[in-house]
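Sample 3 of the quickstart, ligand 2-acetamido-2-deoxy-beta-D-glucopyranose:
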Amino acid sequence: MVKVCTVRLLLAGESLADKMAVFFRVMVLVAALSTEVCAQQSPNSDFIVSSCRKSLIQFHLPAQDVVGKSVQFSAIDKYGRAFLITRALASQCGYTISQDGWGNIDFRTSLFSCYTEIRNDTHYEVTVKIEIASKPDMSGAEGYIKVVSCPYVWHPREILCETNYMEVSVRRKIPVISEGVFRDEPEDWSSAIPQAVSGLMSIWQVVFHLTANQKTTMMIDGAQNIGYGINTTESRTLLRSPYNSSESVFQKVGGVTFSTIRATLFYKQRWFIFLVDNAVACPVDDVTYTRSWITWTIPKNISPLLIGAKITQSSQIQFGVNLWNLTDGEIHSRRYNITDSSKATVVTIPVGAEGGYYKSHVVNKEYGITYSINPFLENLWVDDAWGITKYTIVKQMTTPFDRRPPIITNDTIPVTSIFNVTIGPFLPDVQLVNLTIGGVQQTINVSYPISTKHHPNMSSDFVLKVPFLDPHVSKEFFPDGIRLTLNVVFGFKIHPYDETFTSSATIVSFIPQPTVGPCGMNGLSLTAAIGNLSPDWNIYIEEQQLTLSNGLTANKTHTMVQVPASSEQIMHEVVSGGHVVTMPLTIKDQNGATLYKFVLSCDVPINPVACFPNGTIEVTVKKVSNIPDMDMSLLTLRDPQCAPDYFSNNMAHFTFAANSCKTTRQFEQDMMIYENEVYYYSRTSGKLLYVMNVTCDYTINGTLVLSYGYDDNPTPSAQTAIASIDLTLRLSKDSTYTTFYGEVDYPVVKYLRDSLYFEVELLYSSDPRLELFLDTCWATTTSDMSSLPAWPIIDNSCEHNEPYQTNFYKVTADSRVQFPSHFKRFEVKTFTFMNGNQPYMGEIYFHCNVIICDASNLSSDSVCTGIGSCIPTKQRSGRSIKPSDAHRSVSTSRAVFLLT
Ligand SMILES: *[C@@H]1O[C@H](CO)[C@@H](O)[C@H](O)[C@H]1NC(C)=O
Ligand SMILES: *[C@@H]1O[C@H](CO)[C@@H](O)[C@H](O)[C@H]1NC(C)=O
Ligand SMILES: *[C@@H]1O[C@H](CO)[C@@H](O)[C@H](O)[C@H]1NC(C)=O
Ligand SMILES: *[C@@H]1O[C@H](CO)[C@@H](O)[C@H](O)[C@H]1NC(C)=O
Ligand SMILES: *[C@@H]1O[C@H](CO)[C@@H](O)[C@H](O)[C@H]1NC(C)=O
Ligand SMILES: *[C@@H]1O[C@H](CO)[C@@H](O)[C@H](O)[C@H]1NC(C)=O
Ligand SMILES: *[C@@H]1O[C@H](CO)[C@@H](O)[C@H](O)[C@H]1NC(C)=O
Ligand SMILES: *[C@@H]1O[C@H](CO)[C@@H](O)[C@H](O)[C@H]1NC(C)=O
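Result:
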């Protein structure tokens, strides 16, 4: 190894980060050599991987050791002097520094770099010093010395198009003459050309051919001063130039522009002067990009390199990436396409193919990506002027910035009550660093969980979830619901260079107003279904919160409120259409803020009237919420004497008999109707404020009707409720109708010629104005009243008389019979039941259709007059009879067993 004493250079730390293509940091040399210091013992430099690649030596510094640091390279010559590699020195002396998107640094030197130690033009040794510092001014830098030797076998002419320079080396035809041979021989001719004096073998003059007849001549020092690298080695001459030197000429070859330099080097070797024609040409616009392809076109037969040649033989190409050869199989599997013809080699690389890499960037505050790949192409050809030429192009390709505005996906499902926002896709180098929600900076993953969704192609999305009711979500109330707006700004950083960008999204979701209703009755409770309810919302009835243990049940889509109908919170209200039952509901959010208030109208067959078969009527009146200061004690029936039997602050209860309190009764079609009304007069104005019709509507099975209503001039409306009237058909033990067969006696056994004494009674009723009549009676052998055979007993209200007469019996009041009109009696002879010519023997059942009429005014109802001739006369007096099918019921006896 060379001695470790090196030169330290004073540098200014202006780092040029060429935005897109060039990521390496180059220190600009502003001042010259200052002090000479000795480097410390070289620390462990194993992380720097060096290798021989083609005619280059490469040093690889992995990103993890250099990102965020300042790195500088110096070449060390055989005397131990260090030369800081600046951009200008790099292109003049054959060095290339590149840093990829991830921060990895590659440092390459040409085998013919200015400070290479060349042994016999077959072995090349390069010593570099790499300094890495955390600070831009390189203070406290760690220095590493690397020495690498590479063998190389040169072709007669080798042209290298590096990314930052063009280099050509040509084998000289004249072999080196050993120094000792002519040690003391004076070079007599040298006085003629004084510039050619120095050294045994040297170049003293260069002639650049600018055009066919324009040339520029320079002394060697002059050419070197303006950036050319020109030298000789034992067996070769060397010309190196940056791409844009003033003597370079742009020339189109096969549609591609080449930067070309043609120079004639004048060199002397002892007493010979040689003129060597050197030409180099490297393409500058050979790569075109589309969104999905990179196309690299390298023409064959590059004319500037074939001056004087007439025949070129078939060439041989080698393609690779990162200076590694690739086999045809690898090329194929990576989907590169190489078309090699006699005119050109065309390489197409799909954007994204293996071998290159994607990288995120920010340009004009916008996110986008590039794809980079570093391929090379070698073309070996033979021509009659130059022999074998090896032409190598090393490329660094980066696709133009491709804007990729992040896609914001709204995956919000309203019923979950969570905003679900996906932003992406991003390359793995993008990091979500901060989050602003509703204008407030948030700590990621503390207040709001962020998850990362990875895609197979390595990209990923970020998924943010924000609850609808988050305080930073803005809410706007509309008649049909709540509009929630999530304003979010995502702040991103790109690894490793901390480029930043933001992306904002406004996500709107709408929570429709809860659907309420229907409100109805279930048993003794009012129930209402509420849909569209957010899970964090609470339901209140008045100020009382309902919970699952207290009045709520829920299925997947609805919450059911269940409140006892008698509950204080259930209100009655009088509206234009009449009287409604209402349920006041409030929906609050989890913070207790009221979101909605509803007063539900319930479609409820709430029946404040109870009608009993004995004619007792009960009415419950609830306070009407829109009559101010309603005093429940002041309610009365039609008869002002009939006050509530009890009342509370919000209800009053009446119990009265059908024949009291001015209750009216009327018959209508098949109904018997009792009617009364509940009145409420204003305590102060005496004005009638409220009327409720109380109607008991009895069909024979009993129907009870109620109605009530309120307006300025109250006109009651009607609703219907149902009760039933009970009838019984009994069998008396004899014609006195004092004792009857009981449950246990059935089937009653009777012998032919025995008489059967029946009594039909309207049970329970205490209304003396009602009268029961028999329409039709008949007997069957089964309990099914419609079965056959059937024997008529009473026909059209009159006694059937074949073969034996049925007889009516008059009913008079006694200790058992309070209202004789509620009874009818008749006698049947068992001989009546003939089966052909034989009397029937066995079980027999009796059935009667009855009608109920107004005893005092039969003509008020056509049914009671239009049936049969035996109503009322015969049925009342006994022994006579006729009827329609209204206010009727059928009464069936238990089985009677007939024996002979
Ligand atoms: C030319 O090469 C010699 C030998 O390698 C070297 O000593 C000399 O510095 C080089 N000159 C230039 C200008 O690179
Ligand atoms: C240089 O190469 C020649 C021919 O290959 C060989 O004879 C000679 O010994 C080599 N010299 C050195 C110093 O390696
Ligand atoms: C790469 O390919 C070239 C040309 O085919 C060949 O000369 C060279 O030896 C190869 N290099 C490696 C490392 O295989
Ligand atoms: C390669 O490119 C050539 C010329 O563009 C085309 O004809 C050929 O189909 C391509 N091959 C593949 C495998 O894409
Ligand atoms: C958010 O959306 C993503 C993508 O549709 C889905 O996989 C995820 O389950 C959703 N999360 C929630 C909480 O809805
Ligand atoms: C949030 O991140 C963005 C992008 O990285 C950045 O520009 C912004 O300054 C950050 N905001 C805060 C408050 O840190
Ligand atoms: C987000 O998704 C929800 C639910 O699909 C939808 O109601 C809302 O309109 C969407 N908002 C935006 C801004 O796309
Ligand atoms: C939930 O209950 C509501 C109201 O009773 C009903 O309309 C709805 O169909 C029920 N939904 C389910 C999923 O059972």
